[in-house]
Here is the input.
Amino acid sequence: MSDNELIEILRESLLSDDAPPLTDEEAEVLLSAPIPVKESPAAVKRARKRFVEKLLSQLHREPVRLVGRGITFGEWIARARDKAHLTSADIGEAVGKDGAFIERLEIGEVLPWKVSPVVTAKIVGLFRIHEDAVRRLMSASLSDYEERHSPFSSPGNLMAAMIDRSDRHSAPRGETSEAPRLNEEIINHLGKLRKLLETQAHDLLSAE
Here is the structure.
C-alpha cells in the first residue's frame, strides 16, 4: 500500500462522524498531509478538532493537577497552547468558539467563571485539567482581576503587581498548601462544571 493510499484511508476515517481516536502513528501521517479542498467545511472542522485533541492528549497524558502559584486560568491555557504549537483559532475550533474569544480569555478580558460551564467543560477536557487545578487557576484569576480593578490601583501599583506576578511565574512551579480563595459565583460555576465532567471526563474529578 502506497503512502497516498494510506493517507486516503486515514483521511476518510478521520472525517467521518464516528471516527475512532487516532493513534500516534496515524496522527503523524495526517499532520504531514494537507486535507483536500474537496472536503466540506464541516468535515474539515471535524478533522481540525481531532488534530487539536490528539496533540493536547499527547501533551498531557494524565490529568494536570499541578499548575503553580499565581498562574491564572487564561495564562495557563496560553502556555499549554503555545507548548503544543497551536493557535487560539485551533483551540476555538475545538471548543466551538472563535479565536478572538480564546485570546480574550487568555489575557483576562473574559473571566473564566463568566464563561458558559459547557464551554469551560470543553476547555478543561481538552487540556486535561483536573478540577483541583481548575479551582486554583480560578482563584488566581480572581486575585488578578481584583488587582487590576481595585479602586486604589495606580500605574505604579499595577506595575509592581505585574513585576511580582512575573517573579512568581519564573519561580519553581510548586503547589501551595493554602486553600484557593473563591467567591460565590466561582463556586457555583465549579459546581455546574463538576456535573458536566461527571458524564464527560470522570478522571478529571476528585472523589467526594
